[in-house]
Write a structure and sequence with these properties.
Chain B: Belongs to the binding-protein-dependent transport system permease family. CysTW subfamily. The complex is a heterodimer. By secondary structure, chain A is mainly α. Chain A is built from 11 helices and no strands. The relative contact order of chain A is 0.13. Chain B has 2 domains: 1-65, no CATH class; 66-290, Orthogonal Bundle (MetI-like fold), CATH 1.10.3720.10. By secondary structure, chain B is mostly helical. Chain B has helices at 2-29, 48-53, 58-65, 67-100, 106-118, 121-132, 137-144, 158-183, 186-194, 199-210, 212-227, 231-235, 244-253, 258-290; strands at residues 32-33, 40-41. The chains are: A mainly alpha, B mainly alpha. Chains A and B meet through helix 1, helix 3, helix 4, helix 5 and helix 6 of A and helix 1, helix 4, helix 5, helix 6 and helix 8 of B.
Amino acid sequence: MMRLSWFNVTSLTLGFAFLYLPMVILIIYSFNESKLVTVWAGFSTKWYGELLRNEAFLDAAWVTIKVAVLSSTFATVLGTMAAYVLVRGGRFLGRTVFSGMIYAPLVMPEVITGLSLLLLFIGIGLDRGVITIVLAHTTFSMCYVSVVVSSRLMTFDRSLEEAALDLGCSSFDAFRLVTLPIIAPAVISGWLLAFTLSLDDLVIASFTAGPAATTLPIKIFSAVRLGVSPEINALSTIMIGIVTIGVISASLVSKRNSLRQQREEQAAARAA
Amino acid sequence: MQRFALIAIPYAWLLALFLIPFVIVFKISLSDIALSIPPYTPTLDDGIGPFFAALDFENFAFLTSDDLYWRAYASSLRIAALSTIMTLIVGYPIAYAMARAPEEWRPTLMMLVILPFWTSFLIRVYAWMGILSQEGFLNQFLLGIGIVDQPLTILNTTTAVYIGIVYTYLPFMILPIFAALDRLDGSLIEAAEDLGCSRLQAFWLVTIPLSKNGIIAGSFLVFIPALGEFVIPSLLGGSETLMIGKVLWEEFFNNRDWPVASAVAVILLLILIIPIILFQRNQQRQAEDSA
């Protein structure tokens, strides 16, 4: 066991303070009585009440959740297919182009992706609204899903699949019964990643949304452009809370599963 | 047949919604602005011959003639490069300390780095608006302990943009470096020290080179998106902060000049192609190394 030197302790403390203090301050000030966000005037939850009465925000939240559920589900299906093609597909015509199209959107500036998709939608005469945002979000999040899933596919033991095929499974059944259960944790975290990316996206949604549909980030952005507001602090606190609970419980579940898997493997090894 | 469908579906999706849109952007960058819907000319309705005849590089000539665009590209490159270096300086010690931490802490530390990444980007940028403003938390703190006697102007300056980029992209720098350092065999450093290296020399000659791949991956993950950043300069930056992502946005939404916005996007893409290819090479090499 190594002991941490004072240097390492300092950099961890300062680093995590830097990462978390801004959000802690934001959360504290969301309970501020005063309209002036920088002056502390006592504890109050009134901004949460205001928020819940604000229909524009509630509508936007509903659109955002709809878009996120749809796009992350499509992205997970397409991204898992793409990962399978990349890792198991062997050689096919245009493979380099394909893998380029998977990796490029990960680093593409959002303004370019947004602009190009908007011009496509206008070019083919598709009315902008929920559908166009879903198409746009599916496209960039499927690439994230495919990166997450393909890293899992690369590390898993291919002979399991081959055994299933040898024992008479069709290749689809082998995928459904052997491969999918093994890569399931990666598929689930891919879905979660796609979901949060969609919840989070401002730039691409602004280009592809049009006047008919407004998502929460678009709403937040137009509100905060004018300055800090206690209502937005309250909204941010709720969003941070949901994400924190989600991430912590997901990691606890996966930890429990991996412990159980370890125990089962040990038991199997002892039995053998 | 099954294999064909498996390849064809995601392939067709990406062709239609990723590659073809770029072709359209390129085409519109060669068009002219028009008072119509859509607001550019020519369109394919004009017929194939006149359509191609009407395309020209006028918008690109316009971009070179107006020095706003040059300054925006140059200033985006400078801001992206400097903030990448700053993120590296802030992130490396954190990643290093994480890799040196007791093994049972590491998953928790990892989760603490990843957690902000799952939190809304917009909210994390917004959090700094309240901290950096004239009456903000930072100024209250500095005035309170008497370091300054009048509030500093940080919000709406380029300094705030640097802070914003370092803050929001920090996890992208920490994680690849941590991954590289975590794999590093501690006995190599001991060997270097046994052979007469000082701790600093061992760090410089052994640790840094062995974490090179992580540093490269992290730097690209910060530099490439920072170059086209829109949210941070528009919320934290001021009027003097020129960034090309913001220029493109304004050209499109405020001036409604789609052809010029497209030309701006084409040039930005050309600038990014080299770092994107380098990044992919680095990722592929790493994937091969670990395989």
